[in-house]
């Protein structure tokens, strides 16, 4: 049979589905990190059990990501008192505005108050303490650290 008359399946025209990218480097997390990851795994396992078709495939891919993150999580000891690090809640002033953020692992971060330790702002804050000034985005002493809380 000629290839010209062969019916191609829809599968042949789909884009390949790659695994979710794993952030480079160690999977450092706060003490709360393993429980957050475990909760996400449980949530996805329940969703996979109820899903079918493409939804199920998407959920299985996400579940593989979270299983990998659970297996590689490394809990980081809290930093020294008054020194910003992973797990610290830092209040600082940048461009005249005062903000408070918590430095966490990649998978613990959210859009506003919890930022990953690899984010540029977190990297600028790590190792600082109250009263310190830190460089940020090419500006010397752009950040003034007001307070650091470690639990």
Automatic annotation (TrEMBL):
UniProt cross-references to SUPFAM superfamilies, sorted A to Z: FKBP-like
Pfam families assigned to the protein according to its UniProt record, in alphabetical order: GreA_GreB (PF01272)
Keywords: Elongation factor, Protein biosynthesis
Organism domain of life: Bacteria
Presence of the UniProt keyword Nucleotide-binding in the record: no
Domain Transcription elongation factor GreA/GreB C-terminal stretches: 81-149
Gene Ontology MF terms in the entry: translation elongation factor activity
Gene3D superfamilies noted in UniProt: Transcription elongation factor, GreA/GreB, C-terminal domain (3.10.50.30)
Stored InterPro entries: GreA/GreB_C_sf, Tscrpt_elong_fac_GreA/B_C
Claim: Protein biosynthesis is one of the keywords in the record: yes
Protein name: Transcription elongation factor GreA
